[in-house]
Amino acid sequence: MTTRVAIVGATGKLGGIIRDVVAAEPGFEIHAELDSRSAMSALDGADLVVDATIPAVSIDVVRAAAQRGIDIIVGTSGWSAERIARVRPEIQQAGIRAVFIPNFSLGSVIGSALSAAAAPFFPSIEIIEAHRETKIDSPSGTAVRTAELISAARADAGPVAAPHVDQRARGQQVASVPIHSLRRPGVVASQDVVLSGPGETLTLTHDTIDPAAAYAPGIRLVLRAVAGRVAGVEPGSVVIGLDTFLDIGIRLPSFADQAPVDEGGVPGQVARATGA
After folding, report:
1. What does each C-alpha distance from 175 to 161, 182, 276 come to in angstroms?
2. How far apart are CA 128 and CA 48, in angstroms?
3. Residue 253, preceding bond cis, omega within 30 degrees?
4. Model confidence pLDDT, tens digit, residues 189-211
5. Among candidate residues 235, 210, 225, 209, the one with its CA nearest the CA of residue 25
6. pLDDT 10s digits, 91-139
7. 3-state helix vs strand vs coil in the chain, percent to 5
8. Active site residue ranges
């Protein structure tokens, strides 16, 4: 049986990688290629939607898929636990599978998992992430996911120590973790998680060098899981993170049954476009 895939955001960098993976993957075919301005009616007839748009559009794509009863993989940044909680009832009512992937690379997933594992042992934790200047949102979805995992891992230890956060230069707090975003040419994607305690600092760094090579294995894994070709997700469920489909030997907190962190009306990221 062939799974017909509609890719929204197919003209973008991530969307192009997803398009190439789908086209080469046995049992899948491209049903439609949409950009961020396309009519959602183009989703009709698809078995699976893959969203790689921008934060301001992504929520409409998720709702359009739910209204049509189509499973969806979301690779767009901007989906914090708080924002996902807003659409969870629609997803469950529609009975679709919805998978939110902040980052498709294995190294990134392991870096976030290691950060969460170390988090209870360090009182001070900050994240510095860098992307090319064309990325229109900040902080990155990966940084938001990492901060939420850190916060969940510190449930007993409490919030991280973050002095002077009233000053704008101290970054945006996500789940109590300050995040600093760099947008500059000459970089693909990079994240440093800096954990500090008395007399020592641990820095966990992940760099993406070749996005196509880094993301393709994760994209294939999630496609197969949502299509039911490997152990995947049940209808009506919401899954967050590539780590759900990988046994990396580190137990990560689940957001399924916990209340989302209140980000004061800004769900992890300022989810509005600042450029084309």
Report:
1. 12, 20, 29
2. 34
3. no
4. 999 999 999 999 999 999 999 99
5. 225
6. 999 999 999 999 999 999 999 999 999 999 999 999 999 999 999 889 9
7. 35, 25, 40
8. 131, 135
